[in-house]
Amino acid sequence: MVKGNRTGGLLLAASLLSCQSIGGNLLPGETAVYECASASPVEESVFLIGDAGAPELPKDETSIELVDPVLRALHQDVLREIEKLGPDRVTTVFLGDNVYPKGLVPAGEKDRRRGERVLEAQIRAALPGRAIFLAGNHDWEIEGPQGWEHVTAQREFLASQGPRVSMLPPGGCAGPFRRDFGSHLRFVFLDPIGWQHTLISPTHHKEVCPHPEPEGVVFALADEFDYPEGRHVVLALHHPLVTAGPHGGNFTWKQHLFPLTDFVSWLWIPLPGLGSIYPISRQLGVTSTDISSGPYRGVIRGIYRASRPRVPILVAAGHEHSLQVHRDLVGLTYAVSGAGSSKKANRVEPSATALLEKAVPGFMRLDTRHDGSLELEVIEVESADDVSSIFTQCIAEGPAETSRP
Question: If you placed Cys at 338, which of 55, 78, 183, 318 could pair as Cys (CB 3.0 to 4.6 Å)?
């Protein structure tokens, strides 16, 4: 049973230590927040935004105007970076849950056009830079019986949107798939639900995916971490490994006494005793979307089995509708950027590993510099015209180590 992120974070750190695992330039356990000292120019910028699949859309279905405040703010930042770097060196990574509530339905079904418009709005926010989409649990129809059909429908639609738009791993596949940015940065993309789905429907994966078996995914991930080729490695996936939100089993007296407020913020109906069923069941792993569940824990164990010292240096995820940055006891940084839908921002609770935790809409940007330094910036969006940088953390000072562990 997971009793919250304070306990969960320590257990994960212990697991990492046993795996002789990962970290950045700070000493293990250090939680200082500081900017990189490097004055080297930025080489490439990668925006991180998750759970953006419920944006405000124009009432006129033929309009291409961006009306959603988060996507408008993202687009403005993308354009500013492009002005400095050029469109080929600015990328937006959408960290899953790209279409609520159940992903993109196949062509001809009800709500297909609405789902297309949701994806088109996100693409417009990222252009003329590049856009990379990962799949989240909602894109898999919340792991429903038509999940494979929905995620492959999204893959096919995104493939039709031109060469600057891609889905990694390709919809339905577990990965890992890599993408390099500049001279010093490599992203490794992983789909945990695709990984689990290899057990459910191996035939589908054998037809279209390079790693159709669960152990093959672990070995391929270990290869990626073993041979980073002198680059800093960022692992990108929808599901966070550490979180101060509800998916990490973080519940207080409020959820025990007023559980409905987790669904409707103003629904303060006291349900003493009965209300505890909700938080306790989630802490026991009843839902596979929580860290406490068996399948989720299996994915985390597999990732840590594959990891190496300083590889990856950062884990980027969505899933929680908040902005969080964590650093565990062995020095790995976790970025949780799942606040892409302004009306879905959700609560966070105090955490021993948190450098930042805010239940506000927004996104993040990771800059890689010519000298190899990496810096993470967190941007809060109150409205399209009220955007502020609320946090900056140096992830690495200088280039990655080139020797293989």
Answer: 318
